[in-house]
Amino acid sequence: MNIQIDQVRFIKVRVTPKTAWYFAKVMNSNGLETVVEFTKGSSSGEVAKLIHQMTGYLSEQLVEDESDVESILNIDHIMDGRSVESAAISAVRTAITQLSAMEKDISLNETFNGGKIEKVPVYANINRGLFSTDRAPNDFAAAAENAVKRGFSIIKCAPFDEVSPSDSSEWILKSAEMGIERVKSIRRAVGESITVLIDCHSRFTPETASQVAEKLESVSIGWFEEPLSPNDHSRSLSDVVKKVSMPVAGGESGYGEPFFDALLSSGSLEIVMPDIKYCGGVSESVRIGRLARCKGAGVSLHSPSGPVSLLASAHSTAAVECSMALEHAVSESDWRSELIEPAEVIRDGNIYLPKGPGLGAVLNSNMMAKRGECFSV
Known about the structure:
Elements: E1 5-16, E2 19-28, E3 33-37, H1 44-58, H2 69-72, H3 84-104, H4 108-113, E4 119-125, H5 137-149, E5 154-157, H6 169-190, E6 195-199, H7 206-216, E7 221-225, H8 234-243, E8 248-250, H9 257-265, E9 271-272, H10 282-294, E10 298-299, H11 307-319, E11 326-329, E12 340-341, E13 346-347, E14 350-352, E15 362-363, H12 365-371, E16 372-375
Parallel strand pairs: 4-5, 4-11, 5-6, 6-7, 7-8, 8-9, 9-10
Antiparallel strand pairs: 1-2, 1-16, 2-3, 4-14, 12-15, 13-14
Helix pairs in contact: 1-3, 5-6, 6-7, 9-10, 10-11
């Protein structure tokens, strides 16, 4: 089905002193409107400018399929998923996919596999909720306990604040001791039945990653996420995979199916984590997830931002058979669920997919009037 973009409007929502979410409302020539999230930290404004440029050009075109966008925009180079360009084109491609589903009067998930899915499992990323604390071991333990009380059986944290890969191996291992203590504090607080995932934020070196993983073995870790950057150190990461006992996950900054295919083929990752905001959009994330499953790898979408990107990621997760739990950043704000309409429903470790075409939700106009800030580029 051909889609022609008519107009785009941008909205910023300040969540905490450290966090803001950025959204684009995209309307097609038939008057249908959908919303996508394109949050990229301090670069979000640059992403908005590029989205504006791309959609301005596409407004003069009929787009038959979201995967055609790159060729229509004359993009013939390999994109880095960390770039502003990848974030912009991912948002545009997702918007086209959602508008196409709305034109067909089917849900986003039905676009991918024709099925109706009620809910998708999610895990609790407690890291962002800890920004307002001292990030002491007892803070991590309290946040984990709170997540368990809310019905989550899987928890993720990023405990290695003090570690920098530019330091000496000796100092990296010394700096990692506080992070290991944070993880141990979580395990003591939640017991053995809860799965604990560790995000390293690419803070280690090939020499230190396996040593830190060995120290974490006694704490029963569910996965070891990005001890090294998959974008920059895929070969070294494959060596880490061979040395550590827990699965190695990552790929949040990757763009396109070929990027993930290369990582899986080289044995650099055992669990891929595409982010719809950077990987090429929601349809591309489904292709990446199905590729991973065909190769015997796991897939768990990276989604630490707002309710719009989480909901789109849930549709993608539902479309990939045997997907692992989806990431959800908890305790960042007490009004998060009301930002969309119908409100976000997360209960007992699951996100419930709303009924309705496309994404199935829109931005709540009352909340936008209260917390949103429209801006132009």
